[in-house]
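Notes from the pairing session

We agreed to fold both candidates in a single pass and log them together. This is the raw record for the first candidate, unedited. Please don't reformat it; downstream parsing expects exactly this layout.

Candidate A
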Amino acid sequence: MFLLKDKYVFGMALIRCISGLTEFSAALLMLKLDRVEHAMKINALLALVGPVVLISTTTIGLAGLAGKVSPVKMAIIGAGVTLIFIGVNK
C-alpha cells in the first residue's frame, strides 16, 4: 500500500486517522441518540480533541524537522501555532 519512509510522517498521519475516526464515530453517536442536548455534549467533547490533535501532530512534525530546519524557522512555526490558539480563544 504505502512505503514507510519517514516515521514522523507516519505518526502524524496515524494521529489524523484516529482523529477522523473519532469525529466519524461522534457523528454516528449523535445520529443514534437523536437529541440536540446529547449532540451538543458530544460536540463539546470534540472541541477538546481538536487542539490536542493539532498540538500532537505539530510536535511530531517539529521533532522530524529538528535537524533540517534552522532554529529561527522552528521558532516561527511555534509562534504560528501559538497565534492560532490565541486567535481561536479571543
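Candidate B (folded immediately after A)
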Amino acid sequence: MNYEIGQKVDFFGKVEALNPSTYDTVAINVETEAREKVVVRIPAQAPVQLNKLYWFECVAIAFKEKIHLRADVFVPLAEKKVDDDVKERLFRTFYQYAPVNLREIREAIESRLAKIENPVIGAITRDLYDKFSEDFYLYPAATKFHHAYISGLAYHTASMLKLADGFLAVYPFLNVDLVYAGIILHDLTKTLEFDSYEGSEYTIAGKLIGHISLTSNEIALSAVRLGLEAAEETMLLEHIILSHHYYGNFGSPKRPAIAEALVIHLVDNVDSKVTVVGEELAKAAAGGFTEPIGVLDKERYFKHKLAK
C-alpha cells in the first residue's frame, strides 16, 4: 500500500526482521494482518522481539527518499486488552493455532473452576489461575510432542476436563474438586517453562527445574499467602502435581498414591497421545499409514476407510 506523508495508520503486525542502524531509530520489517509488508521505524533501544505480535499506531514519514512508518505507539499483544475472538483471529492469521475456539475453551475451564466447592482447594486454584491465566491461554502444551501450538495448553487442559467428567460419572468415590483443580493446575507453569508462546524454547528454569516442580512450588507459595499451608488439601494438590507424569524419567518424583492423581495421570496420558494420532491421521491418505509418531514409540497408524 502506498502511504502519504503524514497519514496515520494503526494495525496489528508481526515483527519479521530487526535491522541494525546508526540512527536514533531502527527499521523493523513487519507483516500486517492484511499480509502487507511494511517498514516501521522505532527508537533504537526499543525492546521489540522477533516473531511477536504488536499493536502499532504509526504515521507515514519520509526517510532517505523513502516512505517509512514511524511508530508512536507499539504494544505487545500480551499487554493489550483485546477479547478472545480478536486474539484467535490474530493467532490463526500469523501462527499455527489450536483447532478450537478460544472463547469456548475459556468457558469450559472456568465453568469447572466455578464448581469447586472445597474452600482450600478453591482458594489455591483460583489464586494461581488468576496469576497465570493471561499467558495460560496463549502458550503451547509442549515444544514439539503434543499440542505444540498457540493455545495448545488451554486446549489440552479443556480436553482433559471433558475426559475426567466421564471418570467422575462412572466412579463416584472420586473427589470432583481435586480432579478439576488438579487438571487446571497440572501444567499451569509451562508459562514459566517456555520462553514464549510462539516458537517456544525452554527457559533456564524450564531446563533446570521443570513445570512439575515449578507448579508444586507455586501451590506451596499460594498456600502460604492464603494461610493454608497446614491444610491437608494443600498437600493433596502438591501430590497430584508431583505424580502426574507417573514415571521419574518423565519428571515425576512420586507415583500417584491417591485415586484422583491416578485419574489425572491417565487422562493426561490419553489426551497427549490420542490428539497426536488424530493430527497425524489427518495428514495421511486413506488406505495409508501415518508417519512414525514420537509419543507412541514411533509406531505408524493405519488410516482405514471408516476414519473421519
